[in-house]
Amino acid sequence: MSNAGARRKAPTIHDVAREAGVSRGTVSRVLNGGHYVSPAAREAVDAAIKSTGYVVNRHARSLITGRSDSVGFLLTEPQERFFEDPNFNVLLRGCTQALAAYDIPLLLMLAGTQDERRRITRYITAGHVDGVLLVSSHSGDPVAEELRAAGVPLVACGKPIGQASKVSYVAADDRDGARDMVRFLHQSGRRRIATVTGPLDTPGGVDRLAGYREVLAELGITPDERLIEHGDYSRAGGEAAAERLLAAAPDLDAVFVASDLMAQGVLSALHKAGRRVPEDVAIGGFDDSPAALASSPELTTIRQPWDRIANEMVRVLLAQIGGEDPSAVILPTELIERRST
Amino acid sequence: MSNAGARRKAPTIHDVAREAGVSRGTVSRVLNGGHYVSPAAREAVDAAIKSTGYVVNRHARSLITGRSDSVGFLLTEPQERFFEDPNFNVLLRGCTQALAAYDIPLLLMLAGTQDERRRITRYITAGHVDGVLLVSSHSGDPVAEELRAAGVPLVACGKPIGQASKVSYVAADDRDGARDMVRFLHQSGRRRIATVTGPLDTPGGVDRLAGYREVLAELGITPDERLIEHGDYSRAGGEAAAERLLAAAPDLDAVFVASDLMAQGVLSALHKAGRRVPEDVAIGGFDDSPAALASSPELTTIRQPWDRIANEMVRVLLAQIGGEDPSAVILPTELIERRST
DNA sequence: CATGTCTCTGTGAGCGTTCACAGTAGAGAA
DNA sequence: TTCTCTACTGTGAACGCTCACAGAGACATG
User: Fold this and answer.
1) Which residues of chain A fall below pLDDT 50?
2) Which of residues 39-98 of B have CB within 7 Å of strand D?
3) Mean pLDDT across the stretch B43-52?
4) Which of B189, B175, B249 lies closest to B219 in space, CA to CA?
């Protein structure tokens, strides 16, 4: 209360000390946990804080401690792509909550343009946050490299493709998710299982294809390259890939598609070709994105554990802020069965 | 470059000064615009900055200047509500861009829960941002009041209903938008124009109804309270209101609905009642939200100038940070004609 | 009694900047 | 010459806080 709305200069720790009849040191101790403070002193300080309306000046504190007690959540790509995605919202909320347990506020930073990236990088390296949770799908992200070089604790969401060794990341187990799906398709009686991969310069593209190959090998099925086509994670790319598949291997009876969005394209290609899903061809997607539910039939797909990913990202970041070395965490995925298989 | 990734202590202005063979003061001057610095000194400093990898410590700077050169964008409600809305994305991007012109980074802060609000309020009042752009639809938002009391420059998006006088805001002209729509309905030959209002404890609810009433008065149409029903901005609320309207005034030939979402409800009520849109009844919405395009038929609606709102919010905020008094800005709306009229 | 230990308190130093001020050198005017 | 003015430079003092340290009591232990 008091002095509300005034432009008057804010009360300092000094004012509180005077008001409480103690020294700066004692006030500071109360502020930082209250160890080694007598009950009487603590009460006096608490009262003085209330009566003066004191709020710590975090700049002064940060200047000396070197910490800012806040964490950034950095998006290095256009916001819309993410904001529309419910999975992203789960991730963001999960991180916020995980940090809340430590009373650390999370700052969302958007750096969609080159110019923004420059500004935000400067802001971060100047020490405004203790660490950064990075979300970006482009793997060779220069921002990550720059922050890493500046010594900023950093945890990426998803496996970065470049200098993987030096930057922490938390990711779902793409390879194992792919294995689960292909195994599932096989178990439901499919024998000519094709796949539409993601771009092979993304971790998801590579690992999901690897999982596919592994399971076929396990099952003793002779690899058939006609059953493999590449997409670009887009709907149209999926459709085109499916058309190529149908031409090269018209006897396919299942397709494992590396993203739900591409799976939508595959569905429409199959529909045009007069194949029924799932009767003639089973479709397995990946991501459990909104596209999975919006499709008809609804897609069987692989869900990534976004809530756990969020928790792990925060855990790893805080560990790194605490001085530990970068580390990687891989989390298991879950197969969601719907109508397309 | 140099010392990449090291935990080594960062170079200070002192190190740069030594390296460049000048004093702290000169380095500081170069950093802050370079006035009163000889070309030779400036070059030496620039070189030293590069060779040492120096980055200003913003905590130290902020401590003395009292400014943080950053601005917060505060959401005091659950993120999802906004993230899904393209209008919100336009607003956010607009603010980011407007601030970019001043090289000010924008920090998005989410405070959906009570706990988060506490944390973020503390963070803000501690001086971490120079001002706050506030987005919240609940009008009696305690956060706004608290920040205002703490003397934090603040600009709300949309007219706050409570202590309006003391807090700046930028809003679209609800009343005038409503007038335009009702006038438009009248000009297209409708004579029994009903309305579904928003809640009357929101500015939108009040002002849009006021606009409706004004135009009818202008046109010399006798007010008929049977043509007015209240909704709650939800789809279901709109549907219920439309049912009441149809019962009370079955001869209506147009409805001005205070939000697109409610208009969707109205559409479905009319559909159930066997009325054709726009043949039998014309529908005018408000907001130009995604609902307007997702409806069938697509809604004629009132668009708010989100890009201009963003620019004005930033302008007003910066003015306030610069010491000016709070002010209000009202911007004109635009009528978007589609198939529902 | 001396000594040690534990809890509590105050004090000085310093974090990395900016700011105000004092001062220097050179150019031009009186 | 001498003075003023301008362009530039260096220096000490903050800013508000935390940290390390020293010291004061209280109490127990040898």
Assistant:
1) 1-7
2) 39-41, 60, 63-64
3) 93
4) B189
* Mean pLDDT, chain B, whole residue set: 89
Answer yes or no: do B166 and B185 share one domain.
no
* Domain that residue A249 falls in: 174-303
Q: Is residue A341 part of a domain?
A: no
- Tell which residue, B285, B258, B281, B286, has the closest CA to residue B269: B281
Q: Is A210 exposed, middle or buried (0-12, 13-18, 19+ CB in 10 A)?
A: middle
Residues A228 and A325 in one domain: no
- Using CB atoms, which residue from A6, A55, A151 is nearest to B122? A55
Length of chain B in residues, anyone? 341
Residues 36-75 of A with CB under 8 A from B: 55-60, 62-63, 68, 70
Q: Helices in chain B by DSSP H: which ranges?
A: 13-20, 24-31, 39-52, 58-65, 79-83, 86-100, 114-123, 142-149, 174-187, 203-218, 235-248, 260-272, 290-294, 306-321
Closest CA to A187 of A297, A300, A19: A300
Contact check, Cβ <8 Å, B108/A103: no
The pLDDT of residue B213:
96
In chain A, residues with a C-beta closer than 8 Å to the C-beta of B79 are 89, 92-93
Q: What is the spatial distance between Cα A274 and Cα A271, in angstroms, rounded to a whole number?
A: 5
CA gap A264, A267 in Å, rounded: 5
> Which of the four pLDDT bands, split at 50, 70 and 90, describes residue B219?
very high
In a domain, A1, yes or no: no
- Are residues A96 and A214 located together in one domain of the fold? no
In a domain, A262, yes or no: yes
Categorize the per-residue pLDDT at B138 as very low, low, confident or very high, splitting at 50, 70 and 90. low
| Cβ contact, residue pair B89, A107, below 8 Å | no
- Backbone angles phi and psi of B228, in degrees to 5: -120, 125
Count of the separate structural domains present in chain B: 3
Residue B211: pLDDT above 80?
A: yes
